[in-house]
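Lab meeting notes turned into a lecture example. A postdoc, R.K., suggested we walk through two folding results consecutively so the class can see how the record format repeats. The first protein's sequence and C-alpha cells come next.
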Amino acid sequence: MKRILVPTDFSEHAENALKAAAIIAKKNKCEIFLLHLLELPNQMNDAMTSGGSIPEVMLFIKKANEKLQKIKEQPYLNGISVNASVQFERAFNGILSFNKKNKIDLIIMGSHGTSGIEEVLIGSNTEKVVRLSDIPVLVIKKDVGELNFKNIVFASDFSKEIRKPFKKMVEFVEIFDANLFLVMICTPNSFKTTLNAEKTMKDFIENYDIKNYSLHIFNDTNIENGITNFSKTIDADLIGLCTHGRTGLAHFFNGSISEDLVNHTTKPVITFKI
C-alpha cells in the first residue's frame, strides 16, 4: 500500500479524507495523489476535443491548480510526496480511470455522516466507487483527529471467496498494529447455529498469521444493524467489509451492505472488492 488517491472537490469532507491519507502515508511511507475532476458544459468539452481553447476553460484550470497548490502547502502534508492533477472527466469514471493509469493501492474519499448528499464526489459517486473499485476504498465521515485505528471490525460470512480480499485487510490492520474483531452477523434470514458459525470462522482464520484478533457472533434484525450495533459495543474505530461489486438488477435485488453502511454509519468504512 504505497500509492493513495484522494479525490477532492475542495470541500471540508475532502479535506478530512486528505488528513486521513496524510496519517496513513506517514505511517507507511506512501505517496499521495490528489485529484480534482472538472465536469465541463458540452460547449467547453467540444472546444477541448477539437483542440480549441476558450477563456472559461483556462480559468477553471487556473483556479483548480491554485487551490491544489494551496492544499499541498498545508502543514499536515509536510514530508509527504504529493502529486496534484486536474482531469476533465465525470467524477466516478475519472476516479476509476486514474487508478488504472497510476497503479493506485488505496482510495480515500470524504463523505457526510448521516446527513444529506450535496458534493460532487460523495453520495452516488462514492457508492459507485465503493461498489466497483478493484482496490480498497476508505470512506471518512468527519475530521479524523489523530486517526488511531486501534479497534477494527471486519464483518463477513467468512466464505472461501473472502480469502483473497481479506489479505489486504490484514495488511491494513498491520499498519496500525490494531486489534481485529472478526464478526459474523446472524439474522432471522441468515441464521447459523453457534457451533456452525464458530467452525466457519475458525477454519477461515487458520489460513492467516494474525496477532491480535478475536472471533465474535452477533445476532440482530438485519446485517447492517448487526454490524453497526456490534461496532458500537466494542467502540470500533473502523469497519471493514468486502463488496461483490454487483451491477444492474443483481445489485437492485440484492442491495449492498457496503453502500448502506457508507451512507448511514458515522464511523470510517473500508471496503475490499471480492
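The second example is placed directly after the first for contrast:
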Amino acid sequence: MSDDTPHSSRGSAPKSWLDRIAGMFNAEPQDVSELENVISEAANNLLIDEDTKGMLHGVLDVSKMRARDIMIPRSQMATLDIEQSITDILPILLENNHSRYPVVNEDKDHIEGILLVKDLLKFAFLPDAPQCHLRDIMRPAVIIPESKRVDALLKEFRQKRYHMAMVVDEYGGVSGLVTIEDILEQIVGEIEDEHDDAEDADIKKMASNIFQVSALTPLDEFNTHFGSHFNEEEADTIGGIVLHAFGHMPERGETIELDGLLFKVSKANSRRLLQLQVINGKAPVVSEPD
C-alpha cells in the first residue's frame, strides 16, 4: 500500500495537466471565433507561450486574407524598365536591396517579367555585360487576382517554388505585388535581413510630399521629421497615435487627417498597424506616383 500511494501522487500532476487540455478540446470549436478562444485560453493556462499564441492567431488570420490585404501597393513597387541596360539598373538595385524586381514596359501596368538579382552574377565578369538586356535574363511573372486567398497562394509558392506574384485588379491593371515573405510576416511578425536599416526603414520618401512610414517609428523621430506636434506622452510610436485616432483597428486603405497630415493605412493585419502612407500638405490620396 505504501508503494501505491506515492505512485498515485506522482501520477496526479500529469493527469491534471492532460485533463486541462482535454477539457479545452472536449467541446469541439464550431467556428474560427471559438478556435481563437481556445488558443487564448491555452495561453492563459500557460500551455503555450505568447509567441506561439501570436503565430497561431497569425495562421488563422492568413486563412481569412486575400492578396489585396497584404500586397505591397504599386506606388511602393521598385521596378526596372525592360529597355534599361545592366549598367542603368545598378543604382536601383543598390538603393533598394531587393532580391527580385518586376520588369515593366513603359509603365507598371505592363509587366514583362521578374528579374532575380542572383541571375546577374554570371554576367559580373563578362566584358560585354553592360550590353546585356533584361529581356534575355528575366523570368516569367506570376499574375494573380486581388481576390486570391493568401493560404492558397502560400501553398502555390511552396509547390511551384516562386517567391513573388504580381497582383492585378478586376480590370487587369497592376495594383501591387506580394512575396512569400509578406505572407510569413503575417504569421511570425516582421522579418528583417542584413540589408534592413532601422533608421532608413522608418521613414522613406516616395515623392515630393508622399512618405512611406513604419507604424513603429518612434513618435519623437516622426515629430522631428515632419514638424508635427503629437503628444509623446500619449504614445511611443506614430502607429499608436493613428490607432488611437481611428478608435478601431483600421483596414488597408482607410485614411485619417491629423495635425495637417493625411495618413493612409498601407499595411495592417487584425492585430496591429504595420505601414502608413503619410501625405504632407493635404495632397489628395489619388495622386500616388507610379
